[in-house]
Write a structure and sequence with these properties.
5-stranded parallel beta sheet; Rossmann fold; 5 helices; globular; alpha/beta
């Protein structure tokens, strides 16, 4: 079974993402910020990380950059999921190693299309 770590400081977004990803056949774990995400990845590296940008403790971009330096950290696909809509910020995330970028709010159709584009569906 494919695995996903949903990283977002909003419990509502994590719940929504969990339901949509489970419907796509993913086993889902959750983290409330980047530091929690790195701890979770150290225990078990997921196939996919759905990552918010703006979070307390450690933001999504810093988390992804640190993830990439971990053993096995080059493997997971990272889909940023954020309210940030500035083209420069989207380009920054993609240039730093994100596979795709989803703007909030999103639904199952949008998520499924981004998973397909990232080769995860």
């Amino acid at each position: 079974m494919k695995s996903c770590l949903v990283v977002d400081d909003s419990p509502v977004i994590r719940l929504l993402a969990r339901r949509l990803l489970e419907a796509e056949g993913y086993h889902v774990r959750e983290a409330g910020d980047g530091a929690e995400a790195l701890e979770a990845c150290a225990l078990s590296m997921p196939d996919l990380v759905l990552m918010d940008w703006r979070m307390p403790v450690m933001n999504g971009l810093d988390c992804m950059l640190r993830l990439r330096r971990m053993p096995g950290g080059a493997g997971p696909r990272v889909l940023f999921c954020s309210v940030e809509t500035a083209p420069a910020m989207i380009r920054q995330a993609l240039d730093a190693g994100a596979s795709e970028y989803i703007m909030k709010p999103f639904d199952g159709e949008i998520l499924a299309s981004k998973l397909a584009l990232a080769g995860l569906r």
